[in-house]
Design a protein that fits this description.
It is a single chain. The chain has nine helices and no strands. Helix 2 crosses helix 8. The longest helix has 22 residues. The chain is mainly α and 144 residues long. The chain starts with 10 loop residues before the first helix and ends in a 9-residue tail after the last helix. It has one domain.
């Protein structure tokens, strides 16, 4: 069910709410969040990453602050973080160049979905990787 929250409306929310009118801000935010979650779920269903590749992505993005301000630049450059992560290929037994290439070629929606997984994963860093990925909405295409 719903919960009453107090939320700071940064620039993205302010832009979004400009189309809502004063009387239905909550409705506009809920509609937009519902669409965003549907887009993320749809993109994740189509992604073909192994568990090891997801772990490599999350590790490569672990030092990136996804805070809504630098967010678009950070998640748009996930491929570069993967490409520039020393030792990640050997640690996770992945083809680092191929993974970076696939990330770079993704649509904006797919890159946003990857960023969402990374954020969810690190929110659940207290769990084992498999459980954190599962709770982040990831279904792995291939095993380790």
């Amino acid at each position: 069910m719903g919960e009453r929250l107090s939320v700071y409306a940064g620039e993205p929310l302010t832009r979004l709410l400009a189309f809502a009118g004063a009387s239905n801000r909550s409705g506009r935010l809920n509609e937009t969040a519902d669409r965003y979650l549907a887009i993320v779920e749809d993109e994740l269903r189509r992604m073909r990453f192994s568990r090891a590749e997801w772990c490599a992505i999350c590790e490569a993005m672990s030092s990136i602050t996804i805070d809504g301000v630098t967010d678009r630049l950070a998640w748009g450059m996930a491929w570069a973080n993967v490409a520039d992560s020393p030792g990640i290929s050997a640690k996770w037994e992945i083809d680092q160049e191929d993974l970076a290439r696939r990330l770079r070629g993704m649509s904006v929606a797919a890159k946003a979905a990857v960023a969402e997984v990374v954020a969810r994963f690190w929110e659940r860093a207290d769990l084992a990787a498999e459980a954190a990925l599962s709770q982040a909405g990831v279904v792995c295409d291939r095993g380790l």
